[in-house]
Amino acid sequence: MTKFDEATRAIRVDENTYDVCLDDGFAVGGPLNGGYLLAVILRAVTDASPHPHPVSTSAQFLRVVRPGPAVVALEQIKAGRTVAVTRATLIQDGTPQIETLVTTATLTGQAPEWSAAPPAAMPPIEECVELPQPGPESGMTLQSSMELRFDPPTVGWFTGKPSGRPEARAYFRLAEPHDPDPFVLALAVDALPPVVFSAGHRGWAPTVELTWHLRALPAPGWLTVYGSGRLIADGWFDEEVEVWDSAGALVAQSRQLARVGRG
Questions:
Q1: pLDDT tens readout for residues 45-57
Q2: Global pTM value
Q3: 3-state secondary structure of 204
Q4: Which one of 7, 181, 210, 238 is most buried, counting C-beta atoms within 10 A?
């Protein structure tokens, strides 16, 4: 079992309840990363479902979630031959923290009938940029749990030269040897710095709602993650993400609504 497997493990208490221990290795200055939290929830959902793959997940982030013990409470909405739907609530200290609706199904790995091309050309990985590791006082432990190699124009904000467009592009994998799977993809869709950084904003940008779709089971190797936004207004922004695997297949899509960074 890898560190990520252990950090996302869900232990069955009964058919509707799973105990989890939220790991402090996936924090963003204190709060835990939303994609990591979804991976934890999906461990419980898929364990209880007749179908193994979380093809659609929609989540409302109600409160800031901290490391420590928590519970995933499940309510089965539908269980059919091809699709099951589950309501899953992450509860910490007796209070709901995240509400989700998850659709599970069984993906067979069939070749796509048609596919669009990736949204942008990426330079070779050796020409991409790895940002420095933050100091321990920052509480930014997420960065040490994964590897990101950025397309240089999309991290100009780090040196005070943002591109002026909400965008981020990077190669992604876990820091430990671990082939990508649906739970890693849940982390990947929320792994990039907020796209508003490239538009000149800074600070913690909390996700309010995130929906992501598992489109295919990923091949081993690096993933390529493309992030973009369409509108920044009234203190809110949207972020759309596509994840492509090492074989050139689109494996995940997401859209989230978040608050513009503060502090």
A1: 999 999 999 999 9
A2: 0.97
A3: strand
A4: 210
